[in-house]
Amino acid sequence: MFAAGRLSALRHSTSSPLSRANFSQTPASLRRLLSSLALLEHHDGKLNNSSLAAVTAAMRMGGSVTGLVAGGDAKSVAEQAAKVKGIEKVLFVANDAYNKVCWWNA
Q: Hey, which of 5, 16, 23, 55 has its CA 20 to 30 A from 80?
């Protein structure tokens, strides 16, 4: 009984109009909900590979991807992040206080 219920729920979720939607034609309020924020880690002025993997995963989910960079050298890293395929916007906070949050600076 439970297996049939799970299968029915799965069938319902894959047949919903949202799963087949063309996101460029959805209302603006719905498109805003279909966005991702990727926290971009960096060290010595370079983006970490794990951050690039997070961007790829966010792209696969659909919607827009915004990157967030924080740290003392955030501006230069944000310029790098702006060139990454799939990122539509990059936000950055350039402040040395965020350098102390990282495990390698503890």
A: 23
| CATH code, 75 | 3.40.50.620
Distance CA 20, CA 44 (A): 42
Mark whether 29 and 39 lie in a shared domain: no
Which of these, 28, 39, 43, 53, lies nearest to 90 by C-alpha position? 39
Domain limits for position 74? 35-106
Structural domains counted in the chain: 2
CA dihedral 57, 61, 62, 66 (to 10 degrees): -50
Query: What pLDDT does residue 5 have?
Result: 47
